[in-house]
Predict the structure.
Amino acid sequence: MNTKRYTNRLIPLFLACGLLACEEDNVPQIDTTGVTMEDLRGGWKVSNTETYVNVAPQYQAQVSMHNLREKLDDAFSDKAAGGSLYFRKDMAFYLYEGFVRDSSKYYLDENNYIIHYDNPDLVGFYAPLMYVKTVNNQLVLYLRKSETIDLLDEDGSLKGWMSLIGNVVDDAQCEIYLSRDVDELYDVLEAMGPQD
């Protein structure tokens, strides 16, 4: 057997697996409690992120040595760090380091626990929808496995490995925790334009 060829095949496998997992994290269930539009309204600053990944059992031994769930959490945290959201009645604005970076119309689904954005790149990465819940007076926006896979697929950095990643990951959830925030810019955003 050609050891070099075998090693060359394993490296991408470890990389693909490692980007998403290292051990069983017991991914939380979807919280269907829901929020109201009034709960959303106003400013929210990113305070923390958390990533959970459950790996198919046959891959856990190979990926546990890499401690790469932390790397995924770091990558997700890097995307969210310095960001904030401002929800008006009709629009959501994404601010990064004090400047409006993007905006989108949005709506809550009929059960009030999924936010849909007209602009799928509103929050700086591909997320046409985000699940929403509140935890200890914080707003939590999160992506499940399907949305995380879609984000990676849209990002394109792991092109060619997405079907493998889909098989390796049993479940995943990436959470962004946001705390209430006050900023003069929010007053400007609230005052501009008509609201539906």
Notes: The first strand starts at residue 42 and ends at 55. Strands lie at 42-55, 83-87, 91-96, 99-108, 114-117, 129-135, 138-144, 169-181. The radius of gyration is 19 Å. The chain has a mean pLDDT of 79.
